[in-house]
Amino acid sequence: MQHITGISRQQMRFSSLEDTISPDNQVRFIDAFVEYIDLSKLDFAVKALKTEGRPSFNSKVFLKIYLYGYLNGVRSGRDLEKECLRNIEMQWLLEDIRPNYHSITDFRKNNPTALKNTFKLFVSFLKNADLIGCETIAIDGTKSRAHNSKKANFNQKKIDKHLAYIEAKTQEYLDTLEENDAKQNPLKIQNIQQKIARLKGNKFRYEQLEEKLKASGEPQISTTDSDARALLVQGQVVEISFNIQAAVDAKHNLVVATHTINKNDRSALSAIAIEVKENLNIETYTALVDKGYHNGKQIEICKQASITTIVAQPEQGKNKERIAENYLISKFQYDPITDTYTCPQGETLKTTGSWHKKTTDRDSYEFKRYRTPKCRECPVKHLCTSRASGRDLDRSQYADSVEENNKRYHANAQLYRKRQEINEHIFGTIKRQWGYNHTNLTGLEKVNGEHSLIMLVYNIKRSMNILGVPDLIAKLKKWNSPYKAKALLLIKSNYLKLNTANNFYPMKLAA
User: Fold this and answer.
1) Model-level pTM?
2) Pairing with 276, which of 190, 253, 364, 499 sits 20 to 30 Å away (CA)?
3) First to last CA, the chain
4) Which of 392, 405, 369 is nearest to 297 (CA)?
5) Measured between alpha carbons, how far is residue 292 from residues 142, 232, 234, 312, 467 in Å?
6) Distances in Å between the alpha carbon of 161 and those of 170, 207, 217, 218, 230?
7) Which helix (H) or strand (E) holds 221?
8) 10 Å Cβ neighbour count for 291?
9) What is the dihedral of CA 61, 66, 69, 71, to 10 degrees?
10) How far apart are CA 334 and CA 399, in angstroms?
């Protein structure tokens, strides 16, 4: 039986790079988008043309490389250099330009702000293309492992533990020296002295770390990446990581705002929520947010910015006083006119009107205290409080905004349930399918740039799946942006040939 045979390697044929790329190939949109924009307006480090010496690479070459690389799961500089040599799509995209990996990696490292600006620009294009609804936005965060091990992260407790160990071990070696005669065991004595010297060096390093930690004013310090932090990932699992914030529009699940922080979600809501307004240039929208973001101050800031929040209300934690279910704070009715609370027994709790300040590790806010003298005589006092002086209620300065949010949350349960459908799969795609669950860059600014690039690539991939490459290019051509390049090369003549009636097909010649 005859097998299928291939083409002889010695056979010659007339062909071009253009003939190898189909009209709906993703590289055509990458090329069109990068050629459309003026990189200098986005703060890219654009190299000036030289009159002498070796010419430099156009910055657009590197942006095309990274967009293609991240779209296809390749982000190492060395691997991208290999793709430039062997990948026919990359050869078409770069017109067979082949930069070395140093030049490739330097571009990503030196342009974090410009990459974030490019993400924002693409969001404005998506809005212009009517792919964003601008009405309902789901906000969430996910952790990205930092280029810093747990062993290279320290807090005061960990430093104290190491110093205590060094002190104990040093004393143990000193006691051993006293027990041994230098003349009888010279090698053992020398070995112990070397260990003591090594412990002194370690002690000096930990003392320096302690000084840096105190000077920083932070609860922890990392030595490989000074901006990386130990963050709670899930349950009790802690990783040295960064926290990627993402806001996703409900219409087509496209990311409309993103930035990376090195703290947990509790105080992160207002920054990402306001960034959505700025990126989309809208007056208001509804934000769906999980309970990890529930913070009175943050909800108040969103309210002042005309953002309607639906943040899940956390479950009440265990109370130390073992309060009965019917006497939880939610069972007390507040009257905004009289500024009083009414307890389940019908008694009125009043305030003196004085504001008190409470500061914790996570937050700082002012509150008023409410109480009633009749609490001491109440027959069910044991169900309400164990305090001899009676029950006190504290009302935060942000209580009005929190109560409004909580009412919206309970009244819009069906809408809130869509939150996970909108944004959870994005993190699954990026981290599980693409493998972008960590960063090899150091420093919060550079990490921000890489994560903005990842979200930009996600939007490009999804928008191509929604409209298709030719239609997306057509919308790009109609888009009138202030960041449009002066010499617009949106659709090159090579691409136009594909749509003409007189296409040229190369003839194959026998060897």
Assistant:
1) 0.86
2) 364
3) 26
4) 405
5) 12, 12, 12, 8, 35
6) 14, 12, 20, 18, 18
7) strand 220-222
8) 12
9) -120
10) 11
- The CA distance from 61 to 35, in Å, is 10
d(C-alpha 295, C-alpha 440), whole Å = 32
CB 104 within 8 A of CB 85: no
SS3 195: helix
Structure tokens at 158: 């960990």
Strand 255-261 to strand 393-396: parallel, antiparallel, or no bridges (unpaired)? Answer: unpaired
Structure tokens at 341: 């609370």
**Distance in angstroms (rounded) separating the CA atoms of residues 143 and 228:** 11
Residue-level pLDDT at 142: 94
Take residue 231 and report the two structure tokens written for it: 């963050």
| DSSP 8-state secondary structure symbol assigned to residue 168 | H
Instruction: Enter the tokens of residue 184.
Output: 């009888």
CA 164, CA 7: separation in Å to the nearest integer? 73
* Three-state SS at 296: helix
Q: What is the pLDDT of residues 420-476, one digit of tens each?
A: 899 888 999 999 999 999 998 999 999 999 999 999 999 999 999 999 999 999 999
**Entry field: residues in the chain:** 511
Contact, 406 vs 313, CB < 8 A? yes
Torsion of CA 58, 62, 67, 68, to 10 degrees: 100
Give residues with Cβ within 8 angstroms of 381, minimum separation 6. Answer: 375, 390, 391
* 337 Cβ contact list (under 8 Å, min separation 6): none
**What share of the chain has pLDDT > 70, as a percent?**
91
- CB atoms inside a 10 Å sphere around CB 457: 24
**What is the structure's pLDDT at 366?**
86
The DSSP code sequence of 173-184 is HHHHHHHS-TTT
| Residues paired with 232 in a beta bridge | 238
Q: Token digits for 425?
A: 């799969």
The residues, any chain, with a CB within 8 Å of residue 346's CB and separated by 6 or more, are none
Q: Are 44 and 66 in contact (CB under 8 A)?
A: no
pLDDT in tens, 379-416: 888 888 888 888 888 888 899 999 999 999 999 999 99
Q: Which three-class secondary structure state does DSSP give residue 104?
A: helix
pLDDT tens profile 188-238: 778 888 888 999 999 999 999 999 999 888 889 999 999 999 998 887 889
Both tokens of 177, joined, read 């020296």
The per-residue pLDDT for range 305-338, each reduced to its tens digit, is: 999 999 998 876 555 556 788 888 878 988 888 9
